[in-house]
Design goal:
By secondary structure, the chain is an alpha+beta fold. It is built from four helices and four strands, in the order αββααββα. α2 packs antiparallel against α3 and α3 runs antiparallel to α4. The longest helix is centred in the N-terminal third of the chain and has 26 residues. The N and C termini lie close together (11 Å).
């Protein structure tokens, strides 16, 4: 259990540190424009595609509760194969929530506009997507995940 907890904390801390350092570049003024992708600063007050922005300050507390629930659920499962993707999920989730406390919204900076306009997103968003896909795969292939 201690080894799993160490992996969880290191994964979460690593993702959090990487994401916050990238975001700091944009908060301090870095910008770059291309034909397909602009690297710009946007503060997202909601979640994906700015959904639930109407929840304002309450959104960060709801997200904290959801992350706490995920942590409790996974630790209760006691399945080692969930530890790394959940560590990634937690680090990325806490990084975005941290932005809400510090900046009033999530620091997003990758704007894809090649062929179609897409939402502005960040490294933590990509890591959350990766972790969720990983967890879905583990759930649909139960033989790969033993205690």
């Amino acid at each position: 259990m201690l080894k799993s907890l160490v992996i969880l904390v290191l994964a979460a801390a690593g993702i959090f540190i990487i994401d916050q350092n990238i975001k700091l570049l944009f908060v301090e003024g870095f910008r770059h424009y291309t034909d397909c992708i602009d690297l710009i600063l946007v503060y997202n007050k909601g979640v994906a595609f700015s959904m639930f922005a109407f929840l304002e300050e309450g959104l960060k507390w709801i997200q904290l509760a959801l992350l706490a629930g995920v942590i409790g659920y996974v630790l209760n499962l006691r399945k080692g194969c969930y530890i790394l993707p959940v560590g990634i999920l937690i680090g990325a989730g806490f990084s975005n929530i941290y932005d809400r406390f510090i900046h009033g919204g999530v620091v997003d900076y990758v704007y894809w506009h090649c062929g179609f306009d897409f939402a502005v997103f960040n490294f933590a968003d990509v890591m959350i997507d990766l972790a969720v896909i990983w967890l879905i795969i583990l759930n649909f292939r139960p033989n790969t995940c033993k205690s």
